[in-house]
Amino acid sequence: MSEPTQASAVRPWLGAYPNGVPADIDVAQYPSLVHLLEESFQKNAGRPAYSFMGKELSFAQTDSLSQAFAAYLQGLGLVKGDRVAIMMPNVPQYPVAVAGILRAGFVVVNVNPLYTPRELEHQLKDSGAKAIVIIENFAATLEQCLASTPVKHVVLTAMGDLLGLLKGAVVNYVVRNVKKMVPTFDLPTAVRFNDAIAKGTRGSLKRPDIKPDDVAVLQYTGGTTGVSKGAVLLHRNVIANVLQSEAWNEPVMKQVPAGEQPTSVCALPLYHIFAFTVNMMLGMRTGGKVILIPNPRDLPAVLKELSKHTFHSFPAVNTLFNGLANHPDFNTVNWKNLKVSVGGGMAVQGAVAKLWLEKTGCPICEGYGLSETSPSASCNPTTSTEYSGTIGVPLPNTWMKCLDDEGVEVPQGQPGEIAIKGPQVMAGYWQRPDETAKVMTADGFFKSGDVGIMDPRGYFKIVDRKKDMVLVSGFNVYPNEIEDVVAQLPGVMECAVVGVPDDKSGEAVKLVIVKKDPALTEAQVRDFCKSNLTGYKQPKVIEFRTEMPKTPVGKILRRELRDKK
After folding, report:
1. For residue 550, what pLDDT is reported?
2. What is the CATH number of domain 399-465?
3. How far apart are CA 102 and CA 86, in angstroms?
4. Residues above pLDDT 70, as percent of the chain
5. Are the C-beta atoms of 47 and 36 separated by less than 8 Å?
6. Arithmetic mean of pLDDT over the chain
7. Angle between helices 59-75 and 93-103 (to 10 degrees)
8. Looking at CB atoms within 10 Å, which of 59, 114, 334, 349 has the fewest?
9. Band of the pLDDT at 344, cuts 50, 70, 90?
10. What backbone torsions phi and psi does residue 270 show, to the nearest 5 degrees?
């Protein structure tokens, strides 16, 4: 280690670290995520790992179920490094499937369950997934594209599959027949999740030799070209980020009373890297209990569930904090034990942070990261007592700087593209060396596409976005993708997409169209978007114009579209 004085000159942010958070931690403690999971299964066998709809799943149960699932997957003839997709909301089968896939030596491909057939097909083809674990609610989507994907094996689960015979049967009946949440589908070769587990229990798991540099997860992120790309996260990337997050939370988590199990609320979807790492994997590492919330948009149900628990950590996005804090049932929940509220995915608004602190007594610590950084790169100290309006300081073992267009570091206080270096940075984009080369610098920094400023204390603030991306409630929406889809609609001459400010979601999608067919209506456009784009990508505002503002070269001036209401 270098002398502290030298280190802090190079890393000015170390001065902001709370007592007890080291500048660097040993991120190489485990050879793989499997070692981390298995240590936790043994150490915490008797403790609950997940709570879902009033039922708890212990670490020991998660261990035996995932081991059986791993043996089942191996029995299908898949080989080390094969990709297995997961398409589910937050149900206990998700962490079981993740642990099973990793223990079998395969790669997890997280899929947004709300994808349309077009989006799903792209991701399954691109990843080369051989198998998929999917909840029956979305099986109809898979049916529409399965034939054009490399997927050979479908494991089908239902909402109540791990809730025990009686409760499980009741939940599945209600989901299917009362709430009508399962559209009709036909997947004749699909195997039911519980049957796969039973089969795996009779088989045996051959333990693969998994190394730190083996791929653990393909985390898909929007691509500037309109197609999403898989960020390749190695075992060591995710492990590093779990340990970095643990060290960062330690100053406040050590206040949890000795006999109380650390508990986090998982209201963000597990396919989102923030929940994947900071809820599920960190919960595993700390022997904590994770409360699984299957639908965070149903605020009354979220609050009803939370009113039954004592919990300490709550990672969420601005939209959720805001929705909950303004809900009439907010006070039915005991918020007194909350030690850390981490805001990520999108900018936390000052007004929301102020209201949250007033109502819970726990400030929102805003953090920052991307799929490409597993995700956490920086965060405000968890000991903060007020909202800083910044994305905080780089985590242990992490370096950040601001670069100009030539890739040269700008002087402190000047805006530049935020670049990140650390053990949590991805190995590159899956089978896209061209795209990887665009975002990595020669000295190993990842260029984020966000423009920021660093202050003298080493705190970073985001001031702009380099890419034309729209951030809707923490999800990246790339204009090109929507434009490519809308351009296929007969009657559209030209179209462009921009982000416009939105009270609820931070930004919303605005679609501007020049008609080819004067008869084209807004309703037709909306229907077309609905069948081809998942919910958060759909335009909130549609505007028809006679022409587009363009540069002399003919590039559409998005900024002008943004500014004109």
Report:
1. 79
2. 2.30.38.10
3. 12
4. 96
5. no
6. 94
7. 50
8. 334
9. confident
10. -65, -20
Measured over the CA atoms of residue 67, residue 68, residue 71 and residue 73, the dihedral's sign is negative
What are the strands of the beta sheet with 460-465, ordered from one edge? 399-403, 416-421, 446-454, 460-465
Q: Which CATH number fits domain 474-563: 1.10.10.10, 3.20.20.140, 3.30.300.30, 3.30.70.2570?
A: 3.30.300.30
Q: What is the pLDDT of residue 336?
A: 97
Tokens linked to 555: 């590039």
Range of weakest confidence among 102-106, 463-467, 535-539, 559-563 = 463-467
CA distances from 442 to 111, 231, 402, 416, 446 (A): 31, 19, 15, 17, 10
Phi-psi region of 458 (alpha: psi -120 to 50; beta: other; left: phi over 0): left
Where residue 42 falls (left for φ over 0; alpha for ψ -120 to 50; beta otherwise) is: alpha
Give 349's pLDDT tier (boundaries 50, 70, 90). Answer: confident
Rounded CA gap, 219 and 9, in Å? 35
Residue found under tokens 């039915």: 332
Can you read off the two tokens belonging to residue 496?
Answer: 């462009």
- What does the alpha-carbon distance between residue 133 and residue 367 come to, in Å, rounded to a whole number? 31
Read off the pLDDT of each residue in 527-532 and give the average, rounded to a whole number: 96
Q: How far is Cα 422 from Cα 443, in angstroms, rounded to an integer?
A: 11
- Rounded to whole angstroms, how far apart are CA atoms 216 and 15? 34
Task: Name residue, tokens 């610098």.
Answer: 441
pLDDT at 4: 44
Q: What is the DSSP letter of 134?
A: E
CATH (one of 1.10.10.10, 3.40.50.2000, 3.40.50.980, 3.40.630.10) for 57-210? 3.40.50.980
Nearest to 205 by CA among 336, 358, 351, 75: 75
For 205-238, what is each residue's pLDDT tens digit?
999 999 999 999 999 987 555 678 999 999 999 9
Pick from 8-12, 243-247, 355-359: least confident: 8-12
pLDDT, tens only, 273-291: 999 999 999 999 999 999 9
Residue 233, both tokens: 């996260």
Burial of 524 (0-12, 13-18, 19+ CB in 10 A): middle
Three-class DSSP category at 224: coil
For the chain, how far is it from start to end, CA to CA, in angstroms? 54
Which residue ranges make up each domain of the chain?
Answer: 57-210, 399-465, 474-563
Res 106 pLDDT > 60 = yes
* Tokens matching residue 299: 């605020």
> Which one, of 215, 217, 284, lies nearest residue 245 by Cα?
284
| φ and ψ at residue 456, rounded to 5 degrees | -60, -25
pLDDT at 1: 37
- C-alpha to C-alpha distance for 81 and 118, rounded to whole angstroms: 25
The candidate with the shortest Cα–Cα distance to 445, out of 467, 469, 418, 463, is 418
